Amino acid sequence: MRRDALVAGPLDVAPFLLGKLVVHGEMAARIVEVEAYHGELDPASHAYRGRTARNATMFGPAGLLYVYFSYGMHWCANVVCGEEGVACAVLLRALEPVAGTGEMAAARAAHRRASGPPPERDLCRGPANLTRALGIGKEHDGVDLLSPSSPVRLVDDGVPPPSGAALAQGPRIGISRATELEWRFWIAGNRYVS
DNA sequence: CTTTGGATCGTCT
DNA sequence: GACGATCCAAAGG
C-alpha cells in the first residue's frame, strides 16, 4: 500500500479500500464494506466540531488507524485519509475472513459466551464485530497501517477495487445527522456485507 | 422473520 | 447530564 493512494478525499478513498486486506498477526480479512466521514464538513463525523482529545488521530497523516469507543462497550476502526491536518476517515463496516478464522471465532466466542462462536459469515460483519474478531482496541489507536513494523497493517494483494456495477453505494448506518448522504460503499453481492 | 430493550461509559454540552 | 459511526438475546408473530 502506497501512502499517497490514501491522500485523497474520503469519497475516493472509501471505494478504493474495498478489496484491501487488514492484517493482524496470523489473521487477515478483506474489506467489503466501508463508510466515508468528512471531518469538518460532515455533521455525522466525530471531527465536525473540531479537534478534541478523542478524535486527534483523525487529524494525523493518511494511513493511521483511528479507533474509538462507542455505546459503552464497542470499538470501531477507521482508516485516516487525506492531507495531514484534515480530519477525513473511512470506517470499516464489514470484512471477509481470509486467514486465522479460528482465532477470530475464539475472540468472538469469548465475548458472546453462552451462544458460542458465530457462523463464519458473521465473524467480521459489523464495525464492532470486526474489531472484536481481529483483536483491535484502544491500544491500536494511532498506529501506522502502512508500516511493516505495526501490529495492524493494510495490505494490497492485487485484488482491484470494485467498479461499475460491482460497486454499491447507499446511506450510512446508525447515524442521526446527514442521513441523506450516500457515503456507504460495499462490494455488490458480497455475502459478508452487513 | 421482526421488534424490543438492555448493556455500559467516555466524551462533549 | 445526555447520548452515541452497536450488538445481542429474548419475546412476539
Describe the structure.
With 194 residues, this protein is an alpha+beta fold. The protein is 14% helix and 28% strand. The chain contains three helices and eight strands; from the N terminus they run αβββββααβββ. Strands 1, 2, 3, 4, 5, 6, 7 and 8 form an eight-stranded antiparallel sheet that branches. Strand 1 and strand 2 (27-38) form a beta hairpin. The radius of gyration is 15 Å and the shape is globular. The mean pLDDT is 95. It binds a DNA duplex (13 and 13 nucleotides) through residues 35, 37, 44-46, 49, 52-54, 68-74, 76, 78, 91, 93, 112, 114-115, 126-129, 132, 172-176.
The oligomeric state of the chains shown is single chain
Tell me the Rg in angstroms: 15 Å
How would you classify the helix and strand content by structural class?
alpha+beta
- Give the total of beta strands: 8
Mean pLDDT: 95
* Low confidence ranges: none
What is the succession of H and E elements? Answer: HEEEEEHHEEE
Question: What is the rounded distance between the termini?
Answer: 25 Å
How many strands, which pairing sense, and closed or not: the largest β-sheet?
8 strands, antiparallel
Helix content: 10-25%
Strand content: 25-35%
The global form is globular
